[in-house]
Design brief:
The complex is a heterodimer of chains A (561) and B (261). Chain A is of the alpha/beta class and 561 residues long. Chain A has helices spanning 16-26, 54-72, 87-100, 106-136, 152-167, 280-289, 315-328, 376-384, 403-412, 476-480, 483-486, 505-510, 523-537; strands spanning 38-42, 76-80, 82-83, 147-148, 171-181, 186-188, 193-207, 210-214, 225-228, 243-248, 251-259, 271-273, 332-346, 353-363, 397-399, 417-418, 420-421, 431-434, 450-451, 467-469, 473-474, 513-519, 543-549. In chain A, the strands form eight sheets. A four-stranded antiparallel beta sheet of chain A has the order 6-5-14-16. In chain A, α3 packs across α4 (106-136), α8 runs antiparallel to α9 (403-412) and α8 (376-384) crosses α13. The relative contact order of chain A is 0.13. Chain B is an alpha+beta fold. Chain B has two domains: 2-95, Isoleucyl-tRNA Synthetase, Domain 1 (Orthogonal Bundle); 112-259, no CATH class. Chain B has ten helices and four strands. Chain B has helices at residues 2-22, 26-49, 57-72, 77-86, 112-129, 148-153, 155-160, 198-224, 226-231, 234-259; strands at 138-143, 165-171, 181-185, 188-193. In chain B, β3 and β4 (188-193) form a beta hairpin. The longest helix of chain B has 27 residues, at 198-224. Chain B is globular, with a radius of gyration of 22 Å. Classes of the chains: A alpha/beta (561), B alpha+beta (261). At the A-B interface, α1 and α2 of A face α3 and α4 of B.
Chain lengths: 561, 261
């Protein structure tokens, strides 16, 4: 029997390092050395933007508890660690540090290569600290399979998926209203917007025979369309397409009457002018009726020449001046002082977000995928409801159940995914264009984008070697969406479904993975994207079970609960 | 006796913790483990164990410790592995097999140790409510009814588990004892001698009566509910009936005792 006297107190520092070393040495963190049914958990890769926080500690605990429990129940457990280059978050962090160090405009002063070098340095240091922290917590993960969202293997996966989607017609270059973050100088997705409620004056202005109202007089310079509801009896005498002249901010304009059912007859005067370049609803009205759009505010948040004497001013400086001019011209009907409205801010920059029309790369979520008879939206929905391809065994189970509804509701309202970003730190869009300067004259076909997983050597049309790559990078969630299978080495030896002989062994063994956990705040950013990518690329769900945990309170978050 | 009790508790723990893990109820699993380790094991079994005359005592403790380390391991991998290594284990705790509960799985606190435990807790509570100084040793008389033999065998245990009793007399039944602190557990009557503040005791007993009447009313209501009686499993309904009987007996005794003050 045991007859030992242990020290009265347990001092962790005296034991932990040695125990962790023994665990690592035993090889049991690596499922290659275990037998039994495979059980894979891919760790949500922490952003290399500093050090781990309490939320990471919670997640780490949950995963290690599960991994250890399953391992002791005889499963072949793979707990796969990794880190995330976190595109916009990391670049923003490093730029902030540089500004703090006195570099006024990091992008301008350092240029692309030097800035990337700085970001890489910072990321590597952060990564090293984070990995040490994960070890300190006793995490029983397989270090031999450590992955980084920005390493060669993952980059290859990103490029392959982009090309596949492009060839299936799911990626297109489109002119769209996007959310422009002037501070970070990049597009951000709808999910990265935080809405703040503000009280601002609401201005009622005289536009010819009509009264229109706006909180943003600075966007009204190019107004030439006035929109009302076709059933509005007040404006029965005006027909769609009628033209009239009226005095406006900077002189006379010729306006056209547009009738559209989107107008709320009960709100204000039931009439509004539209700014298709700077408002989503206005943009859609313009699309419907084939109207033109003018850019009023530039990409630095300043007024353009169409604003006349106000050109070059930023919005907040210009607005009171414009209000004064309107008053002076007798165009100000009345001012409602405390109108409550929502202002969009970028969650990383906290700066105002301005809708802009821009050419961006988009993923079409509604298009029917050739050969599959479904759209990406359908795939995302199916995985959680009937099971992928109607297979009950390929069904993602969400715990707690109530998030299923939240997820499905989001899918129903989903717009196309804007995947390009104008920041430098991230996966470069694998698209090239023919410059043709070594060939004299380029053929029209040369202007089509060359989409390729590997850098092309020459233009396939004219043979020119003068090629340049698209400047944009991809939304970080594009690479994170591939995480469950890019970490297993896809597309290595398995461009075909993973059930062929001699295919990628890890992919065959561990995919779909068994358990995934995350906070509710990235349900749409991440869980949904992983389901999209996995069902589309591999024809498999990414995981059988998802566990959603609570998240500490974020101020201003569009929280779900 | 205490062995049966703790082994049974451990068995139930293994089942419940495993179910919790399988349903991702990590918090619940942690709480159960804590309750067992701090309360059942440390506060009760380890103390009672000192009075058990069992040759298997060491083995049982070893068995409990071994299983507990396995169950705790996912939550506290380092310290459990450290203690495991001190047990001269050649293999790592990390890959030790998860325990399975033994059949039959018995829930509820029916056994002997549970009865003793409840009496001990009742004595402690009665002392506290009457503000009897913890250091003060008193004499106790217990009318244990059908448990008399059991209690007689466990007098040392009862005296030693912080009940502050220096002299303990066990009888099957007996006359009411005046001037004593009175408490009842089911049909068991407990008298604590020489420490009574009559006024305080009366208040305490009245409180006990009020409390019991409330519980009994709720229970009677439940048993009068046709839906409950018809729909609930027979075992559950029967359990409620037994509980009611126990409380009614207790109430009767306290009412009688109050008359004696």
């Amino acid at each position: 029997m045991l007859n030992k006297e242990l020290p009265k107190q347990y001092h962790p520092a005296d034991y932990e390092e040695a125990i962790y070393a023994r665990w690592e040495k035993s090889g049991f963190f690596n499922p290659d050395n275990l037998s039994g049914q495979p059980y894979a958990i891919m760790m949500p890769p922490p952003n290399v933007t500093g050090v781990l926080h309490l939320g990471h500690a919670l997640e780490n605990s949950l995963m290690d508890i599960m991994a250890r429990y399953q391992r002791m129940n005889g499963k072949k457990v793979l707990l796969l660690p990794g880190t995330d280059h976190a595109a916009v978050a990391t670049q923003a962090k490093v730029e902030k540090i540089l500004i703090g160090q006195g570099v006024r405009n990091p992008r301008q002063e350092l240029g692309r290569e030097k800035l990337l070098e700085k970001i890489r340095e910072y990321a590597e240091e952060s990564k090293s600290t984070i990995l040490k922290q994960i070890k300190k917590m006793g995490t029983s993960c397989d270090w031999s399979r450590l992955a980084y969202t920005f390493d060669k293997t993952r980059n290859r996966a990103v490029n392959e998926v982009f090309v596949k989607m492009y060839n299936d017609g799911l990626i297109y270059r489109g002119r769209r209203i996007i959310n422009w973050d002037a501070k970070l100088q990049t597009t951000i997705s709808d999910d990265e917007i935080v809405w703040q409620e503000e009280k601002a004056p609401f201005y009622y202005l005289k536009y010819g025979p009509f009264t229109i109202a706006t909180a943003r007089p600075e966007t009204k310079f190019g107004d030439k369309y006035v929109v009302m509801h076709p059933d509005d009896k007040r404006y029965k005498k005006y027909k769609h397409g009628d033209k009239f002249d009226c005095e406006w901010i900077n002189g006379k304009v010729t306006a056209t009457v547009i009738k559209d059912e989107i107008i709320d007859m009960k709100f204000g005067s039931g009439v509004m002018t539209i700014t298709p370049w700077h408002d989503l609803v206005d943009f859609e009205i313009a699309q419907r009726h084939n109207l033109s759009a003018e850019q009023i505010i530039d990409f630095n948040g300043k007024l353009m020449p169409i604003a006349g004497e106000f050109v070059g001013l930023d919005i907040l400086t210009a607005r009171p001046k414009i209000v004064e001019k309107l008053k002076a011209k007798g165009l100000m009907v009345k001012v409602e002082k405390n109108y409550l409205h929502r202002v969009a801010k970028g969650d990383r920059s906290q700066a105002a977000v301005e809708p802009q029309i821009k050419e961006q790369w988009f993923v079409d979520v509604n298009k029917i995928i050739p050969g599959k008879n479904k759209s990406l939206k359908d795939l995302m929905r199916q995985a959680v409801t009937t099971g992928h391809n109607g297979d009950e065994k390929q069904k993602v189970k969400i715990t707690p159940e109530r998030f299923e509804k939240t997820y499905l509701h989001w899918i129903d309202n989903l717009l196309d995914w804007c995947i390009s970003r104008q920041i430098w730190w991230g996966h470069r869009v694998p698209v090239w264009y023919c410059g043709g300067r070594d060939k004299g004259k380029c053929l029209p076909e040369c202007h089509w984008p060359i989409v390729s997983a590997e850098a092309p050597k020459e233009c396939s049309v004219c043979g020119s070697k003068d090629l340049f790559q698209d400047e944009d990078t991809l939304d970080t969630w594009f690479s994170s969406g591939l995480w469950t299978f890019s970490t297993l080495g896809w597309p290595n030896k398995s461009l075909l479904p993973p059930f062929i002989k001699g295919g990628n062994k890890d992919l065959k063994t561990y995919h779909p993975t068994s358990w995934m956990q995350m906070g509710y705040e990235i349900l749409f950013f991440w869980m949904a994207r992983m389901i999209l990518m996995s069902t589309y690329v591999l024809d498999q769900i990414p995981f059988h079970n998802v566990y959603i945990h609570v998240v500490r309170n974020f101020p201003n978050r569009r929280g779900i609960i | 006796m205490a062995e049966d009790w703790i082994l049974n508790k451990l068995n139930v723990l293994i089942k419940d913790v495993t179910d919790d893990f399988n349903n991702y109820n990590f918090s619940s699993a942690g709480e159960r483990l804590r309750e067992f380790t701090w309360n059942d094991l440390a506060d009760w079994y380890l103390e009672a164990n000192k009075f058990e005359n069992s040759s298997q005592r060491g083995q049982i403790l070893y068995y409990i410790l071994k299983n507990l380390l396995i169950l705790w391991h996912p939550f506290a991998p380092f310290i459990t592995e450290a203690v495991w290594q001190e047990m001269d284990k050649k293999e790592l705790l990390m890959v030790e097999k998860w325990p399975t509960p033994l059949a039959p799985l018995v829930r509820g606190e029916k056994n002997d140790f549970a009865v003793i435990k409840n009496v001990i807790i009742t004595i402690r509570n009665a002392r506290a409510e009457n503000k009897v100084e913890p250091a003060r040793k008193i004499k106790a008389v217990i009318y244990a009814g059908k448990h008399a033999e059991l209690f007689a065998a466990q007098t040392e245990l009862i005296k030693s588990l912080r009940t502050g009793i220096s002299e303990l007399e066990i009888k099957v039944s007996g006359e009411k004892i005046a001037g004593a602190i009175y408490a009842a557990v089911g049909e068991i009557e407990i008298y604590l001698l020489g420490a009574l503040d009559e006024v305080k005791e009366k208040v305490r007993l009245e409180k006990g009566i009020a409390n019991l009447e409330k519980i009994i009313k709720a229970n009677e209501g439940k048993l009068a509910n046709k839906e409950f009686v018809d729909k609930a499993p027979e075992a559950v309904v029967e359990k409620e009936r037994q509980k009611l009987k126990g409380w009614q007996a207790e109430l009767k005794k306290i009412k009688e005792q109050i008359k004696h003050l």
